[in-house]
Design goal:
Elements: E1 4-9, E2 15-19, E3 35-37, E4 40-44, E5 60-63, E6 70-76, E7 81-83, E8 91-93, E9 98-99
């Protein structure tokens, strides 16, 4: 199991939490989850940029139905989420996230 990291969409500013996988090189700082939001890869956040409310709020989970990869949604995306590995749309379940506006 890897560390829990925060990510943000550069287009709609949606925020996600993802568990780093142990498959890649240890300590790899440039790892991003295989998720495209609004057609773009996510941008990794520094630890102090991740919303402080993420530990206390019930989150929605976005899961790829084909390969099973999942991320926790902190701020709901304005666009669709697509698995960059198998090009399948993610399914979103549970919780009640903050919605991106403006």
């Amino acid at each position: 199991m890897g560390r829990l990291w925060g990510f943000r969409c550069g287009s709609c500013k949606a925020e996600f939490l993802a568990q780093g996988r142990s498959e890649g090189p240890p300590g790899r700082a440039d790892w991003i989850p295989p998720v495209l939001c609004c057609g773009e890869p996510l941008r990794r956040l520094e630890a102090d940029q991740v919303l402080s409310s993420i530990q206390t709020r019930r989150r929605r989970i976005a899961r790829c139905p084909r390969c099973g990869y999942e991320v926790a949604i902190v701020v709901h995306p304005a666009g669709s989420l697509v698995c960059s590995v198998c090009q399948t749309d993610f399914m979103i379940v549970g919780g009640s996230p903050v919605t991106v506006t403006g």
